[in-house]
Amino acid sequence: MKLIYIPIEVKTRELITKLFFIADNINENFIFFIGDKMSTKNAVSCLGKGVYFYKSINWYDTPHINRVKSKGNVYISLDEEGGVTQSNISNFKSILNRRSSMKNISLVDKVFTWGNFDYNGWRSKYRDYKNKIVKTGSPRFDLWRNEVYSKIFKDEILYLKKYSPFIFIPSTFINSSEWLKKEIDHEKKMNKGNSKEPSAFLKKRINQSKDSYKSFIAYVDMIKKLSIKFPKKRIIVKPHPKENLSDWKKKFKKKKYSNVFINNDFDLTAYIAASECVIFTETIAGMQSSIMGKKTISYNLKNISTLRNYANKCVPNTTNFKTLIKYLNKSSLNKNSIFKKKIKNRFYITDTTTSKIIMKNIKKLKINELNMNFFYIKLKLYSTYYFILDNLKFLFIQIKNKFLNKSNFKSYSIKMPGGINRNEIEIIFKNLGIIKKVKIINFGKNGYIIHKKIVG
């Protein structure tokens, strides 16, 4: 058996996708470790050599990559943000100045990409390492398949159907002036020390943040108008994991907006599947909605930053509220072949699941076989130790934050609400019909070993 480490940073974005990756490859000769970054770091330090499957190779990740590689691990990456919504290849290469570096591409073993666009961008920027770049697609695509999401999210979809028919609006905004200030400070911090990212691009990023806040204000206005225009139709807004729900909810306190619901209890895919129509701007969710066969409309502001506006061009789009209403009243939309072609230009989606394509490429790598007896001894010894240690660390952080009145808009509680619990994993595997063939072993506070049960 061989080992794959799968760290999770943003739970709502990554956990279910990575669990499907495991489920889709459960019959392979692999043991999977999945957990938050702290648990995964602990596991890498003691469980043995394997494949480390991470979500990026940011320019500042060099010490992290060196630490993982020093343990004899193979390091592979697939960028969770993809860059596929960037307006052009030039902007994408600028993003790569932050999301990668020459040093890091030389250290890692493989970089997987979403499709032709980012594949060509990576290979063009790092010509000497072209053989490390592989076009696989993203495991996110697998969740967009009817035969997959109808199983994984069947309970969530059934629950959301009680709101039918509803308009779904996935938010990806900066939704407060306080957050805007923090985001600008964050952009400056990310740029500091990165000689490859020009100041002109930093200015564009800051302007993009400001425009994101403008879009939030415009969307609040648009949703209020929709609420009054269609009083019998429900509107569900799902804030991004980084957004504060209260900043949204306080905008719709008045009784006349009682058909507007602010909710992010479920995965994005469940909302799209249960919805009648999706209205968005800039986010990949709009492209996903179109692929899933939903009526999809991009509603945008005029004269705002266009660093990542490609998704807006992949569906009928408008900056005019009256046109938006016209699109909403059309029974058939999104049928134009040009729109579908634009999406296919960015996404590599085949009859084979992306999860299997990635596994096929992983199996080509030189990976150490585990000594299973020794592995289980270490697992038993270290699991309890790290469970106690992790709980003490979390307690210390909570006390420290309380006494220092410290809060971070990208804190652990926002990225990993509730941590990762065993029940969440079991529900996904049960819905996929494989729970009886899977063995799940706790490791530390938020880590799990998962593999196929050995019969006999």
Provide a brief overview of the structure.
The protein is an alpha/beta fold and 456 residues long. Helix content is 47%, strand content 14%. It is globular and about 65 Å long.
Index terms:
19 helices; eight-stranded mixed beta sheet; 456 residues; alpha/beta
In round numbers, the mean pLDDT is 91
Radius of gyration: 22 Å
Q: Approximately how much beta-strand content do the residues carry?
A: 5-15%
Low-confidence stretches: none
Helix content class: 40-55%
Major beta-sheet overview: 8 strands, mixed
Name the strands of the widest sheet in spatial order: 6-5-4-3-1-2-14-13
Number of strands: 14
Whole-Å distance between the termini?
17 Å
Q: What would the principal axes of the Cα set say about the shape?
A: globular
Question: Structural class, from secondary structure content?
Answer: alpha/beta
What's the number of helices?
19
Walkthrough of the structure:
An 8-stranded mixed beta sheet has the order 6-5-4-3-1-2-14-13, sandwiched between helices. Strands 9-8-7-10-11-12 form a 6-stranded parallel beta sheet, sandwiched between helices. The protein has 19 helices and 14 strands. The longest helix has 32 residues. With 456 residues, it is α/β, with parallel strands linked by helices. It is 47% helix and 14% strand.
